[in-house]
């Protein structure tokens, strides 16, 4: 066969096995224009005739599932001149034997009739996956019956693509080379306890008090936790510092993962991880966050971020362990260049976890090795200290919003953020509401593991006479409560001292529902600790607002709007009085909007152009007088 020839294979699978359509292996010269198109059309027609026929059959047989009557038609085209290094995995027999030599055999691998095209998996060459004809993905899909989903069954989804993607050739990334060997050993003792294995700075502290700061009908639930650190003088923190909270993966999700991998009976086995000999991965190392002598349960509970959104390389690797050809094709699409928008829409933007993805792709059975290679380290979550040691000796406060992920395709029920959901469950019974009697259960609050991260620059000015501006909507106000508590104490201790002006810009949805620390802030204002408290409510009706305005367009909804209104004072403090400006909270929108507004303010007040204003702001950043502590 000439290398300039085309080679194609057409296979149709159905519940009746490989159907009568003969397997075609044809060599044609590339100059036979139109042949490919004609064959494609012919096969397409055959496929749709067959679908119609089988649907009729299905109508008379209520026992048939949509899956079982959907034929799977795949047609692949390969130009050998383009991909000389590639080899063709032709049919199910080849594919099965490949699985047999892989780390595990897919438990639910269905008969696969896909003619796959793959390069040397470790050679790092992007692989072109040809188009599939017949819109198998776009027609009734087996996957849709396997997940509860109330959406339009004909719409594109995680498991289903529509033309043109379902019909297009794909550029999928090269298969990431395997680099770990993983085995499980049945031993007597393995470590199950986080405290003993983690870093030395980790300390276990009791939760002393948990207060819900938002009203029950607020969109977000914000909670203040008071930790008792009196037994830990090493937890020496300053306002502006943050600390890490170590949370485990949810037990139910760990169990689900073990079941999904078929390893539920080996949860107490010791996991042994070593570097694969002769791996082609450059700089490969055994992950440092997987300690020796840990159980499989420990691995999934404390070491791996099992909620992480699978990257495209991971999806690419999962293809190799997926038996069903429709599911393989969809995974290929999701990791391909052509499927980038689908990946963003159905995976990334929904923060879909690997476990959720695996429920939608039931024929995918990855080996444990693959999960260890691709899942990142389970990271502790940082929180800003929301108190001053001077005001609350032996205590450390922090505030968190309970993150909520809504239900979506692949996630039949909504879920909470990992750490915030875990914390909320821990303290739920002992949760108190401001102004209400504390419930007796608060004494029974549990302990958590934390470790201090110091932040050398996000601190109030050391010179007490220097003015400063704080911008912190929502839980972004947390460090500023610490700043102001400290200032309150300093004012009591040094009544003769000169104190610079303090400004706080705060925002929330509703004055009555989620105005965090309202009483404390108003108290600071009354006592002169805080000189200017500027608050905006993004969802309140105008008549409830602090400042009445007639034109709703001019209504300040967000902190940047009230900042703009006070532009003259802002530039005065920053540029004439050498003051400081701090921003804390949401990085995605708020911090950027505040930054843009500062540029506008500088432009207007100094009468300079955009470039000059940006330079001025950059100078403030460099001098560490414009400081950010942002996340999200
Ligand atoms: P995860 O399960 O990790 O999910 C987080 C994902 O949810 C994110 O990837 C994001 O896409 C999405 N998400 C949706 N809403 C939010 C949101 N409001 N915050 C974060 N992610 C969101 N959080 C506080 O509530 N209070 C603090 O004082 C605080 N201080 C921080 C200080 C620093 C230096 C940093 C880096 C972060 C801080 N955070 C704070 C964020 C905090 O560390 C966690 O990211 C947050 O609580 C979510 O954790 P989770 O495990 O519940 O959510």
From TrEMBL:
GO cellular-component term (any): cytosol
UniProt enzyme class: oxidoreductase
EC identifiers of the protein: 1.16.1.8
Cited InterPro entries: CysJ-like_FAD-binding, FAD-bd_FR_type, OxRdtase_FAD/NAD-bd
CDD domains: methionine_synthase_red
GO terms, biological process: homocysteine metabolic process; methionine biosynthetic process
One matching Pfam family: FAD_binding_1
Annotated signal peptide: none
Single GO MF annotation: flavin adenine dinucleotide binding
Keywords, alphabetical: FAD, Flavoprotein, FMN, NADP, Oxidoreductase
Cofactor requirement: FMN; FAD
Domain FAD-binding FR-type as annotated: residue spans: 200-461
Protein name in UniProt: Methionine synthase reductase
Organism of origin: Solea senegalensis (Senegalese sole)
């Amino acid at each position: 066969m000439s290398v300039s020839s085309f080679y194609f294979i057409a296979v149709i699978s159905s519940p009746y096995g490989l159907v009568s359509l003969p397997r075609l292996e044809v060599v044609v010269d590339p100059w036979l224009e139109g042949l490919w198109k004609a064959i494609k059309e012919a096969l397409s027609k055959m496929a749709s005739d067959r679908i119609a026929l089988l649907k009729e059959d299905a109508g008379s047989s209520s026992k048939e599932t949509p899956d079982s009557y959907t034929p799977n038609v795949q047609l692949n085209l390969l130009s050998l001149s383009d991909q000389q290094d590639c080899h063709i995995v032709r049919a199910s027999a080849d594919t099965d034997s490949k699985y047999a030599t892989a780390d595990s055999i897919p438990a639910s691998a269905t008969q696969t009739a896909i003619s796959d095209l793959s390069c040397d998996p470790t050679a790092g060459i992007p692989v072109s996956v040809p188009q599939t004809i017949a819109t198998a993905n776009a027609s009734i899909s087996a996957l849709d019956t396997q997940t509860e989903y109330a959406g339009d069954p004909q719409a594109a989804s995680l498991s289903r693509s529509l033309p043109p993607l379902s019909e297009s050739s794909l550029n999928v990334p090269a298969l990431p080379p395997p680099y770990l060997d993983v085995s499980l050993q049945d031993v007597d003792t393995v470590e199950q306890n986080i405290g003993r294995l983690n870093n030395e700075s980790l300390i276990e502290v009791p939760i002393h008090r948990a207060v819900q700061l938002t009203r029950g009908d607020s969109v977000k639930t914000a909670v203040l936790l008071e930790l008792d650190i009196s037994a830990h003088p090493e937890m020496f923190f300053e306002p502006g510092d943050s600390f890490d909270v170590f949370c485990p993966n949810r037990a139910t999700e760990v169990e689900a993962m073990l079941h999904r991998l078929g390893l539920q009976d080996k949860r107490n086995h010791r996991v042994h991880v070593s570097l694969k000999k002769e791996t082609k991965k450059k700089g490969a190392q055994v992950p440092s966050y997987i300690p020796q002598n840990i159980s499989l349960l420990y691995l999934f509970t404390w070491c791996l971020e099992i909620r992480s959104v699978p990257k495209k390389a991971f999806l690419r690797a999962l293809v190799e362990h997926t038996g069903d050809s429709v599911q393989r094709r969809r995974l290929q699409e999701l990791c391909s260049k052509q499927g980038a928008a689908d990946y963003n829409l159905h995976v990334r933007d929904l923060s879909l976890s690997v476990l959720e993805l695996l429920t939608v792709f039931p024929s995918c059975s990855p080996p444990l090795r693959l999960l260890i290679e691709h899942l990142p380290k389970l990271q502790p979550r940082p929180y800003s200290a929301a108190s001053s040691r001077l005001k609350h000796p032996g205590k450390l406060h922090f505030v968190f919003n309970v993150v909520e992920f809504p239900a979506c395709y692949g996630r039949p029920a909504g879920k909470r953020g990992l750490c915030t959901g875990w914390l909320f469950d821990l303290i739920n019974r002992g949760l108190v509401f401001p102004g209400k009697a504390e419930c007796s259960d608060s004494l029974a609050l549990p302990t958590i593991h934390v470790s201090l991260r110091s932040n050398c620059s996000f601190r109030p000015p050391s010179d007490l006479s220097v003015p400063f501006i704080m911008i912190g909507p929502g839980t972004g106000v947390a460090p500023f409560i610490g700043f102001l508590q400290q200032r309150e104490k300093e004012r009591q201790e040094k009544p003769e001292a000169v104190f610079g002006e303090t400004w706080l810009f705060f925002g929330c949805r509703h004055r009555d529902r989620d105005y965090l620390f309202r009483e404390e802030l108003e108290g600071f204002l009354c006592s002169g600790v805080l000189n200017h408290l500027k608050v905006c409510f993004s969802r309140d009706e105008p008549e409830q607002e602090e400042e009445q305005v007639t034109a709703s367009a001019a209504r300040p909804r967000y902190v940047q709007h009230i900042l703009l209104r006070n532009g003259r004072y802002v530039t005065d403090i920053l540029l004439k009085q050498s003051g400081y400006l701090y921003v804390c909270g949401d990085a995605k929108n708020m911090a950027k909007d505040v930054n843009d507004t500062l540029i506008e303010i500088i432009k207007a007040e100094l009468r300079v152009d955009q470039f000059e204003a940006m330079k001025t702001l950059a100078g403030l950043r460099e001098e560490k007088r414009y400081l950010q502590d942002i996340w999200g």
